[in-house]
Amino acid sequence: MRNAIVLFLILSCTSISTIGQIKSVTKVFILRHADKAGEDLSPAGQVRAKELKRVLGEAKIDSIFSTDVPRTKHTAEVLAQSLGLPVIIYNAEDVVIKRVLKTCQGKRVLIVGHSNTVSSLISKCGCTPPASINPNIPDTQFDNLFLVLVSKNAKTKTCEVIHMKYGAVTP
Whose CA, among 27, 66, 90, 115, lies 20 to 30 Å from 103? Predict the structure, then answer.
């Protein structure tokens, strides 16, 4: 519940610079795919994908990106189907972040990645990833959810990362 309140407050605020110019704030949700069984989701992962839909279902997500691996696509698909959005496939972190920062300014985006790409995705947005996931998320962790706030105006770009948890706790 606490995460939901914090998320609501963050999403409802608009950043305004000191000289009165409104900054464009792009909100990028980044997470590792849900619990896996080989290339796909385990039963626990299927439950976690449904929990992602519950957590982000009212967040007004505009676009959803995933790698082409079944477990990432299936993590994203439950939310995408409920919102009537396609899952856009990406194959490189730098390409997807450039696309998001260029074409999704001021919007809300979900990117589903892997244990060895989440840290890089956060870095490529301009933020410092939390030490607990740098360089990689531990193999046993599937409950991390990161909200990366990228603010831009004509003169400055700032980045902030908020580390949250969702679904069942993983070690």
Answer: 115
Q: What is the mean pLDDT of residues 50-76?
A: 98
Provide the residue range defining the domain that includes 36.
23-165
Number of domains in the chain: 1
**Alpha-carbon dihedral sign for residues 96, 93, 129, 132:** positive
Instruction: Copy the structure tokens of residue 9.
Output: 């407050």
49 within some domain: yes
The DSSP call for residue 157 is: E
| 6 in any annotated domain | no
Listed residue (120, 113, 123, 125) closest to 25, CA to CA: 125
Is there a domain that residue 171 lies in? no
pLDDT single digits (tens) 26-47 = 999 999 999 999 999 999 999 9
- What is the C-alpha separation between 50 and 28, in angstroms, rounded? 19
Residue 17 has pLDDT above 50, yes or no: no
pTM across the whole model: 0.88
